[in-house]
Predict the structure.
Amino acid sequence: MKWFLSFLTAVVFAVPVAAQVQGVELDAPVDLPAFTMEDELGNSFVSDDLNGAWTIIMFGFLSCPDVCPFTLGNLEAAVAETGMRVRPDNVPKVWFVSVDPERDAENISEYAKFFHPDFSSMTGSREEIDGLIEATDSFYRILPPDSTGYAEVQHSSAVSVIAPDGTLRAKLQPPFDPGLTAEFLARLQIKYRKELSQ
Amino acid sequence: MRFVLAAATLAFTAGMTLAQDLSVTNGYVPVAPPSAMAHAAYFELTNESDVSRSLIGVSAEGYAMAHIHQSSEQDGIATMAMLHQLDIAPGQSVAFKPGGLHVMLMRPTASRALGEMVELELQFSDGQTLAVVMPITARKFGTDGGS
């Protein structure tokens, strides 16, 4: 029985590795709505700021103990790796957008910076968040608090890749393997530049 | 100094756990941003006894509360579920690791710096408790975070 169980475990763990896809390119670029996000220091992050540079947008929340820090840590490694493959001005910015402004708005600014000084964190009104969520085909749901007052937030595990023209071009998926993610981003950028020159 | 402390902690932990046929190894709490409202503890919990044991709760020094949580991903959605009981068969070892089982440490009462120690108490259904100490460690980027 124990042997069978460990065999099962081996199979279950082997599958995600074999099927490891780091990114999915969209069939066609998707325009994003105009939006304004901010942090508690008064810095604003608007849709126009996406123009002229590559940006990775990740949704999360500060009461997330496991997946969000894990993802930001892996993104830091993936972005560093990308920096070895592309020109410095093509290294993607990372924007962490909290979908939980009620709990997070007052101290959002430091969160993503912790993983890399150039990462930004922000949140906004429910309407602004929902607009960006919808446009990037993302998802979140804040569950009612449990008996201890803890409210869980479910959210998309994939992150969005925005091109310098401000359009959504691709989604990156966990586990964000640094090498494979960097390879995917570098190829995406080459293709984007080819498109522009045509 | 840190090494000595860690070694002392290890010896301490091992002494505690052998008595109960339960052991916790490779425990760590990745350092978190100051504004993070939750930390996570990861470790391996082994039941060396010949009866099944059930982890039913955790408490942690310096946190408002601690829950046993399981992260999972379904159809691209990351979710967490709280576990009220985790059964560990005789001889079985359960891994708490990033993206899976973890102890969620809610609302740290102070920010925790690298190298500081976190004290947890694991509670089992037979009334036994297990005190363990684990360090705040640097994150292992670009890996599954496992040790």
Notes: Residues 1-19 of chain A have pLDDT under 50 and may be disordered. Residues 1 and 7 of chain A are 10 Å apart (CA to CA).
